[in-house]
Design a protein that fits this description.
36% helix, 5 strands, 135 residues, 5 helices, 14% strand, 2 domains
Length: 135
């Protein structure tokens, strides 16, 4: 059994927008609300629980670099920012494939996780069980 997830950098996603006294940040209140939502979603905790259960069942968790998955066509492989009409709609400028943007990205993530490449990052068994890797 394989489960494929985006390799999200939660720490980077929830970085502060406060800035400095000389260069104050923009939309600080909105960013603070977004950060609360990201952290409340408990993605890391979900990933840890999933890893634990998969290790118990003999399954594998694969993390994939999410870059360009939302602008790459899952049908023809064309990568173009113009493919993403808006937050919800995906329309490939090369082949005309249309889909919900999140569905298209999910298909790309699954495809990347099930083929061997540099973008695939299997989670080690030691980390899954909460242990430390020792040389």
């Amino acid at each position: 059994m394989w489960i494929v997830l985006e390799d999200l950098k939660i720490r980077n996603m929830s970085a502060s927008a406060k800035g400095t006294a000389e260069e104050p940040g923009k939309n600080v209140a909105q960013k603070a609300g977004l950060n609360r939502s990201i952290l409340a979603a408990a993605w890391y905790r979900f990933e840890r629980l999933l890893s634990y259960k998969l290790a118990f069942l003999g399954g594998n968790l694969v993390k994939v670099d999410p870059r360009y998955t939302s602008v790459t066509c899952s049908e023809c492989g064309s990568r173009d920012k113009g493919n993403r009409e808006n937050q919800a709609k995906f329309l490939c400028l090369s082949c005309g494939h249309a889909d919900h943007a999140d569905v298209n990205a999910a298909v790309n993530i699954l495809a990347a996780g099930t083929r061997p490449s540099k973008a695939v990052k299997p989670v080690s068994r030691e980390r899954e069980r909460g242990g430390l890797s020792r040389p």
